Amino acid sequence: MSEYSHEPTRGLPGVLPQDEHILWQSGPDWKNMAMTALHIRLSVAYFAAIAIWLATHNDAKSALAVSALGVCVVGLFTLFAWGVGRTTVYTLTNKRLVLRIGVALNKCINLPLSEIRAANLKMLPSGHGNIVLNLNGAPRLGYIMLWPHARSLRFVTPQPTLRAIPDARAFAALLLKATQAVQPVAPVEAKPQPSRDIPLMGAPA
Residue 121's domain is classified under what CATH number? Predict the structure, then answer.
């Protein structure tokens, strides 16, 4: 028996109604997520800089201790990213997005397509990408509850984020089409820029 054997359908909290069906289902690529959401390269650079500084100041023991600590921290971050990639399932139906998240305690977060006000795409290496969602109304989701499936540093108004999904451009087009079938959102034409969010859609003015 697996830890998700209670799910009637993989990644979903219950049986779908007759008028609802799955359009797409996937999860984050843990290697891309480790680099972009957990900033492992920044952690490596941080500990390496301290260790090198200590070594150049003839403090070899401290440099070795910092290096060992850095290896442990990066190892824990990597293990966490692998766990997130293993346990997370993103599901798009014709009516909602469902985020099954949580490494130790899994939970399902339902985001009706009718509540999506806007969405942005940020491309990552190898065709993967992040989809950042802007929801209508007051924020109902806590940042801690969502993390790492939330846009970085948006604590007051958390923005759910589908992290490091494969073939992100194709999914973005599918999300736009599914949302347009539910509410009158308009596609946003924007010139892609490296390392920048690409607007996908927004509610008409």
Answer: 2.30.29
